């Protein structure tokens, strides 16, 4: 590895530079932060992991009761009102979770961990737009299925994400019934849903065009029948009444059925260890962090380390961070909207109170801040955090609401149009008004772009007619919008 730069490290592998950004001095620093970060619970979901699980049980119970009443008395009564109230409560929780998600990214001292969390939640996309219960589930999904496995094995991450109820609902797995199962034989016309199997192979593991067939997808779909949800707890369970019996030929191997969730864990483990998965996911990591056309030898080295370590993700990240392409001064990627919004807020050093518009927190750097209680979180629907969430909607990357299973587009060209620039300028003006009154634009430029600042940008900032124009010149500059 040559050419390591603390500035490039913060901009390319974190959310940029700011007054509270702790510099790293070698790639190992980024890897070593991952275990420390995993030990700190994220700010979301609003009630914490167990509190959100309790809320899901309460939601299922209240919704079931309201629907039963509506069937009994017809529509238009108090039961319809009960459902509307319940859904408004869910939407309110989701808005607060969204603000807390942005706040987490801005305030966490573990920026590489935050960037990885955003990468993997996009790789294993689910959408809160699917249904009201998904608005409760998706923040929980990121907190308990994605974040704890960012530095571990891909196998564990794949199984955790695939068998989480958020994924089961999003890919309609709960509707999948084996035609030869007890329910399938009794009702007739039932079929295994292929959505889950296809997305696991195409998006999450092997990659499109990697050599699997439609017969493999169909066999995997049959093998995964039985994976469904418990109606009262919304937990993922195995239901033998809808599971297709027999054995299944997938990718040239035949698999029997044990009659539990272990059937799914077995085949997911095989897919995780496949060399095609190593190459596909390594490529996606390199495209996200290095550039739209990453060096071929980088991807091959990452895939080789993957195979040597059976998908140990920290080892794969280390190969990426040791490659010279990681430290070239020319920025390789246009920031996605979340990157831009978070790095802008980070550049001003906004604290917790400013982001949440509460008076309860003035310790934005400490790990204790990451563990604030639910009462303190209740004011999260106001302030710069809410402005940021609305801006992400306008920029086309609404939090936790990708429009399809492929997630948000990762290509630079997708996020570089005139509409993006206009929205980014509008957002920059608003946060300058909130945090730029005492800043010298020349100092701001140096503090946020360091050695990546171009001569043209330095000249524009130095010649700016006023403070606002100078600060805006940095936030809309090409190098601030790239990483």
Automatic annotation (TrEMBL):
Pfam families in UniProt: DUF1800 (PF08811)
Domain of life: Bacteria
InterPro entries hit by this protein: DUF1800
Protein name: DUF1800 domain-containing protein
Species assigned in the record: Peteryoungia algae
């Amino acid at each position: 590895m040559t050419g390591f730069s603390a500035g490039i490290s913060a901009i390319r592998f974190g959310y940029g530079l700011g007054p509270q950004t702790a510099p790293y001095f070698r790639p190992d620093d980024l890897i070593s932060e991952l275990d420390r970060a995993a030990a700190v619970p994220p700010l979301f979901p609003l009630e914490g992991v167990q509190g959100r699980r309790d809320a899901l049980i309460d939601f299922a119970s209240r919704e079931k009761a309201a629907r039963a009443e509506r069937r009994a008395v017809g529509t238009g009564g108090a039961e319809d009102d009960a459902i509307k109230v319940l859904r408004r409560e869910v939407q309110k929780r989701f808005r607060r979770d969204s603000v807390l998600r942005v706040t987490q990214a801005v305030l966490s001292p573990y920026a590489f961990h935050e960037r990885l969390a955003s990468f993997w939640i996009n790789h294993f996309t689910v959408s809160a737009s699917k249904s009201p219960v998904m608005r409760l589930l998706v923040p929980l999904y990121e907190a308990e299925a994605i974040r704890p496995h960012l530095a571990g094995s891909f196998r564990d991450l794949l199984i955790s994400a695939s068998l989480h109820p958020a994924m089961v609902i999003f890919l309609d797995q709960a509707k999948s019934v084996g035609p030869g199962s007890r329910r399938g034989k009794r009702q007739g016309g039932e079929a295994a849903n292929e959505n889950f199997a296809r997305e696991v192979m195409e998006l999450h593991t092997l990659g499109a065009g990697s050599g699997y067939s439609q017969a493999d997808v169909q066999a995997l779909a049959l093998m995964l029948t039985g994976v469904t949800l418990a109606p009262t707890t919304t937990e993922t369970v195995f239901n033998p009444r809808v599971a297709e019996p027999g054995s299944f030929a997938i990718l040239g191997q035949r698999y029997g059925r044990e009659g539990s969730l272990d059937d799914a864990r077995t085949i997911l483990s095989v897919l995780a260890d496949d060399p095609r998965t190593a190459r596909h996911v390594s490529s996606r990591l390199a495209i996200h962090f290095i550039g739209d056309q990453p060096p071929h030898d980088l991807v091959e080295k990452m895939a080789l380390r993957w195979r040597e370590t059976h998908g140990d993700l920290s080892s794969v990240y280390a190969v990426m961070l040791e490659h010279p392409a990681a430290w070239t001064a020319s920025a390789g990627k246009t920031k996605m909207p979340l990157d831009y919004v978070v790095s802008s807020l980070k550049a001003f050093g906004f604290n917790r109170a400013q982001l949440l518009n509460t008076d309860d927190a003035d310790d934005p750097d400490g790990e204790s801040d990451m563990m604030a209680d639910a009462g303190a979180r209740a004011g999260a629907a106001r302030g710069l955090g809410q402005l940021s969430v609305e801006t992400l909607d306008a920029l086309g990357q609404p939090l936790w609401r990708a429009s399809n299973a492929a997630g948000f587009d990762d290509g630079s060209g997708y996020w570089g149009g005139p509409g993006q620039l206009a929205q980014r300028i509008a957002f920059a003006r608003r946060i300058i008004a909130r945090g730029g009154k005492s800043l010298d634009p020349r100092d701001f430029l140096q503090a946020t772009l360091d050695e990546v600042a171009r001569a043209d940008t330095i000249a524009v900032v130095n010649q700016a007619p006023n403070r606002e124009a100078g600060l805006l010149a940095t936030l809309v500059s090409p190098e601030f919008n790239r990483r």
